[in-house]
Structures are given as C-alpha cells and as structure tokens.
Amino acid sequence: MAEVVNLPRLSDTMEEGTVAKWHKELGDKVEEGDLLAEIETDKATMDFESFQEGTLLYIGVEEGDTAPVDSVLAILGEEGEDYKHLLEGGSGEEASSQEAQEAPAQSEETSPEAQDQSAAPAKAPSAANAAGQNAASDGRIKASPLAKRLAEEKGIDLGQVNGTGEGGRIVKRDIDEFKPQEQPAPAAAPAAEASMAPAAEAPQDLAYEEVNVSQMRKTIARRLAESKFSAPHFYLTIDVAMEEAMAARKKINETSETKISFNDLVVKASASALGQHPAINASWAGDKIRRNKDINVGVAVAVEEGLLVPVIRHTDHKGLVQINQEVKEKATKARDKKLAPEEMEGNTFTISNLGMFGIKDFTAIINAPDSCILAVGGIRQEPVVRDGAVVPGNVMSLTLSCDHRVVDGATGAAFLQTLKNALEHPLNMLL
C-alpha cells in the first residue's frame, strides 16, 4: 500500500527545508534505512534515511526546491500502484491547490457570468481590468505554497506563469525563471505630467546576479535581526598586553604535540572569567534573568553561507589541549555541513574572532540566548608606555557586546578586567 513520506523536522527551529540532493530516482526500489535524500535545514545539510520500503512513485519536492515541514516529500508503494488518492485526500500540498482549482471551475460552468465570458472574443486585458481578472482567477491556479509566496514577494502575477510541475502546477523554478511579458507602451503623458518627469532615468543595463537565500542564511538573518532589534546592545572595549600570553603559548607548543592557538587561550580565559562573573553567564527570560550554572562557550565559525556556532560544553572544566581539539573538530564539521543540531545548542557565552583577518577591533551582534558576545581582534605591535618609558608592545583589543536588560556597564567592565588579567598572566589561569 502506498505511503506518504513527509518532509521531516530535523532541528528544533526548522520550519522549512530544501532538498539538496535526491539519492533515489522515480521507479527506484527503496529499502528501510536507505539514504533517500540530503535535506538542508536552517543549521546544516543532513542525510535523511527512509523508514519505509517500496518503489519511489512520486517526488513532491524537487532538488533545489524548498517546502514547509510536513509537506509531501515522496510517496513509496508497489510498482505501478495508483497513489493519486493520497494527494487528493489532503495529505500533501497538491490537494489544496487541486481542490481550489476544480471547485470554482465547476461552479463557473453553470454561471451566466462564466457563459458571457466564454462567449466574448479573446483579447488582451487592459491595465484597468487586469487586476480584477487576476483576483477572480487566483483561487483556480495550481501552485505550490512556496511558489505562491515567492510570487507575492516578487510581485509576479501567477496567471502569467506557465507551470512545469505535474499537471501544469507552478513550482519554485517557474517563479525563479519567470520573465514578464512586454507590456504595451503607455500613451503619451499630458504636458503637465511630462514636465514633472525626472530629467534622467537609472541605467537599464546594470549587470547583477540574484542568489537564492539558503535555509542557513534565512535563519541567520532572522535570528540576528531579532537579537539586534530586541536586545539593547552596548559595547565595551579593552586592550590586553599579550607578551606573557605569547611567551606561554610558545613554551607550550615547544613541548606539546597539539599546537595551541591564541583563540584557545581566549576561550579558556573567558571560561575562567565567567566563573567569577555569573551575571555575564546569563540570559534574558522576560520577567526573569537566568543565571546559568554551566559554562558553555560558543565559538563562531565562518562557513560558505554565513556563520555557525559550535558549542564547547563545560568549557571551564577543560584544558587548552582539549579545547583546541574540540574547536578544530567541530569547525571542520561545520564547514563540511556535518555539524549536528545538538552541537550548536546550549551556549551561554559566545566568542567571535576576526584577528586572523587583520581586524583591529569590531562589534558583534549578541548570539541569543546569551547576554554577551566577545569580539576578538588581532594582535598588533604598537608603542606602549611601560614603567614611564615608551616601548614596543603587542596589544590585542577585546570588545564585549552586552544586553543592557541583563548586564550593566560596571558588570561588563569588571568581567573584562578579569579577562584581561587572565590573559596578561596566563600561568595563573593554567594552574
């Protein structure tokens, strides 16, 4: 008996998914446990294994297309089996569009207005009545929910789009590839209006490229906008003398097989400072402030489509070597889109480091639900005053972005002072 395979929810925040790749084609045999497709979520691209067996009779979401969670992903059954009733029965997005198309069409057949329209000679609609015709026909157009949404966002009239999906259904690629028909030239404007026209128009030959927004990028955009516009940010910057940290790192790397980075030192020092300042290791919860007992540091990793933040759990209980190995392992998985959702959850503080790109200092947007994020700049040589004399120094700037609902200026400053002391005297931190 044919069964529907719905698009699964592969992460707690996933609302829609994109099929990155199908591993089976129509007519292929599928065994339980076979890899069916790769699905891009808001966090990673994940393999989806079939929990059913049978022949792949129907594909509901083509490669590269996006659909909401629980949409019809595929239908499995016996070879040659009729599966249409599963779509018509309302289990997929096809059903609603088919019903919407057929019901009004049937009622129009007996409608005098419909008869009058069918008897009228065919002609191009004028600009004045085009909107009315589109409104009347909107419910009869077969289109996927995603295609309808994209058409609305781009201002495309679905009545002008040729559907290439099953039964003439309009799908995402039809919207992406749609080119509007040329409209007749407007009548000459009256002299009064002509005098108000702009002296020059924008160039029409401007070259550009449109890139589809990935699920990851959509989530990054949504979450950062929510953070920036809901959490009142303020910023504190402090300079750290890095001579002792540089000497300690050099000595460790001379005797250790694992080569410690400056970022590892910052992660370890931050975890140590968070233990002394629990008000920073906190988050806003509406009518409460949550003080986290665990210290889980998220480390921002740049990937092709944005940023991912793998989490180092119980960071305060881990040594530099363990921190280094875990950050490297998770960063590699992040770039390969193999990072599991649970490896990006539970952060209580986040670190973003752009020092390797030569950035002196910057401000970062808080990574919810944290109340703070630390932006780390590169180590730079500059003159400093030491013991009353100007001498060469190695300085690193740290900028703390704080949610003012949770953290006050003095609290953030005290944390930075502790962090600065830990980095300037790293042996105390490591003992």
List keywords for this structure.
431 residues, alpha+beta, four-stranded antiparallel sheet, 18 strands
Number of E strands:
18
The neighbouring-strand order within the major sheet is 9-18-17-16-12-15
Give the overall silhouette.
Answer: elongated
Mean pLDDT: 81
Which structural class do the helices and strands define? alpha+beta
Instruction: Determine the fraction of residues in helical runs and give it as a percent range.
Output: 25-40%
Tell me about the biggest sheet?
6 strands, mixed
The poorly predicted ranges are 90-139, 182-197
Distance between the termini: 66 Å
Determine the number of helices (DSSP H or I, runs of at least 4 residues): 13
* C-alpha Rg (nearest Å): 29 Å
Sheet-strand content, in percent, reads 15-25%
Question: How would you describe this structure to a colleague?
Answer:
With 431 residues, this protein is α+β, with helices and mostly antiparallel strands. It is 34% helix and 23% strand. The chain has 13 helices and 18 strands. It has helices at 84-91, 93-109, 112-119, 127-137, 145-154, 172-176, 191-196, 215-230, 243-255, 262-276, 320-335, 409-424, 426-430; strands spanning 3-6, 16-22, 29-30, 35-40, 45-49, 54-59, 66-68, 72-77, 233-241, 282-284, 289-291, 297-299, 301-303, 306-308, 311-312, 349-353, 372-386, 389-403. The strands form five sheets. It has a six-stranded mixed beta sheet with strand order 9-18-17-16-12-15. Strands 1-8-6-3 form a four-stranded antiparallel beta sheet, with helices on one face. The protein has a four-stranded antiparallel beta sheet with strand order 5-4-2-7, with no helix packed on it. A hairpin with a 2-residue loop joins strand 13 (301-303) and strand 14. Helix 1 (84-91) packs across helix 2, helix 10 (262-276) packs across helix 11 and helix 10 packs across helix 12. The chain is elongated, with a radius of gyration of 29 Å.
